[in-house]
Amino acid sequence: MINKKSYVSNxxxxxxxxxxxKGLFAKQKISKDELLVDxxxxxxxxxxxxxxxxxYRKHIDYMLQIDFDKYFAATNKKELEExxxxxxxxxxxxxxxxxxxxxxxxDIRKNEExxxxxxxxxxxxxxxxxxxGKKTCRKIITGDDWKLKNIQNKYKGYFSVYLKKEINKIK
Length: 171
Fold this sequence. Notes:
Layout: E1 7-8, E2 12-16, E3 22-26, E4 35-38, E5 45-47, H1 49-57, E6 63-67, E7 70-73, E8 87-88, E9 94-97, E10 101-104, E11 113-116, E12 127-129, E13 140-142, H2 149-154, H3 161-170
Parallel strand pairs: 8-11
Antiparallel strand pairs: 1-4, 2-3, 3-11, 4-10, 5-7, 6-7, 9-10, 12-13
């Protein structure tokens, strides 16, 4: 069963995805800056790196990093919800506002999958092979991608709060 406690725009629905098993898709046109998902009232929990690593090893990988040692996560199947199916793309159409809210970075067409680039929120020690198929695909995604100048410029204004602070320190 999938919870619906987090806000998910009524313009979005859960469907099968080519990027992962499931993904969120636009049922109709969505305008730039529209709120897509807000996890702030969701059933997930704030956890640390150690707990996140345990969940990852159990293939419960529905989490959003919100600080260097903090994640907002579905820690069991009861907490899993529709909003947890936001997938990665190197050519995303959604970005982060604050730490737990996602907005449209541009107009989104009907039937387009809603995606964000994990570089907007992730700084943990991880890597995976990306198969998003976008022209801008980095092929290998890591927790250090937020440090790349071209990524910082591309997603300016759409990074999680803690990464915005780090990027501002670097500049």
